[in-house]
Write a structure and sequence with these properties.
The protein is α/β, with parallel strands linked by helices. 25% of the residues lie in helices and 28% in strands.
């Protein structure tokens, strides 16, 4: 699983997978899925074994069921059978419909001993985005906002971009962005904060930027339209592609579900929602969220726009320099 996690920013929409090959209690090969469309973990692990004759006497460990279908690469279960690896230990079943037990069955039918469900909970947690996407048919949704000590998300009469938290928190947020497929804001946040929604504070990939702009009122001079990253503009008027900006007309009568349906079609497996309060609350009210990351800044506003109202199970509460970070999961 440590090997698998190295693929975090590079393998989506594929899952993160790591594999280790053991002969007589000694690791003789290891690998992980490094980039989408490239060799899978099992392929890299097998390729790393210097003496291939040992494979027929070894055990292969992998956190996710080896694939059984031809996608960007050939099936890993076929390669395992081809090398006569006698035992395979798997963290969890791949619930993607093209696999879903088929890889396990194929290996068992070839006479391989297959053990399934070792560290199953941890294996599913590692690929929570992937499983959520295929099982719920929508992205894994992370809500993120910063609020003042007295519970406000922004000043009452905001006339310029307003940053609530410290530079340390800002860098952490940019790291989070690099780990997810897309990031979404509403029209008012785009207007008032003029965010870039990139990862400029760190080295990493920019997520796909998404903004809700029903009547296409936003100025094209805003940072969102600077072509530094792909931007999707959900609107009620047109569908057209202009440079890196993709205007998509959707049904605003059922807005949230329309957005998620479109993102599923686009194979976007994870989504950070960064505001504003109205946009965040709309996902909360529909119970369409999985995780919330909330910064409480060392500031008092007295009056302003109230923070979203949310209930969940607290997993982490820790200090990030001046700010307190609380992470909730949908209870």
């Amino acid at each position: 699983m440590e090997l698998a996690s190295k693929g975090l920013e590079n393998v989506s929409p594929n899952p993160m997978v790591g594999s280790v090959i053991v002969y007589k209690n000694k690791i003789i090969g290891e690998g992980f899925h490094q980039n989408y469309g490239k060799a899978h973990a099992e392929v890299n692990a097998i390729a790393s074994v210097k003496d291939k004759s040992l494979l027929s006497k070894s055990t292969l460990y992998v956190n996710l069921e080896p694939c059984a279908h031809f996608g960007k690469t050939p099936p890993c279960s076929n390669l395992i059978i081809e090398h006569k690896i006698p035992k395979v230990v798997i963290g969890c079943v791949d619930t993607f419909s093209e696999v879903s037990g088929k890889g396990i069955d194929r290996m068992k039918n070839a006479g391989i001993e297959v053990v399934v469900g070792i560290l199953e909970k941890e294996s599913r947690e590692l690929n929570k985005r992937f499983f959520n996407f295929h099982e719920k048919k929508r992205p894994y949704i992370i809500l993120k906002w910063a609020e003042s000590k007295d519970g406000f998300i922004a000043p009452k009469d905001q006339t310029a971009p307003f940053w609530m938290t410290s530079n340390d928190s800002k860098k952490l947020v940019h790291q989070w962005r690099s780990e997810e497929d897309a990031i979404l804001v509403g029209r008012i946040t785009a207007e008032k904060d003029n965010p870039s929604l990139t990862v400029r504070e760190i080295i990493g990939k920019n997520p796909t930027r998404i903004v809700i702009d029903k009547d296409l009122k936003l100025s094209k001079k805003l940072n969102l339209f600077n072509n530094e990253a792909k931007t999707i503009i959900f609107n009620d008027l047109k569908t057209i592609e202009i440079n890196s900006n993709f205007y998509l007309k959707i049904d605003f009568n059922n807005l949230i579900k329309s957005i998620l349906k479109e993102l599923y079609k686009q194979k976007i497996q994870s989504l950070i929602i960064e505001g504003g309060a109205k946009t965040l609350q709309s996902f909360i009210d529909k119970k369409l969220w999985d995780e919330a990351r909330i910064f409480t800044a060392n500031k008092t506003l007295v009056e302003g726009i109230k923070s979203p109202n949310i209930a969940g199970k607290i997993i982490i509460k820790e200090k990030v320099r001046e700010d307190v970070l609380t992470i909730l999961f949908n209870a």
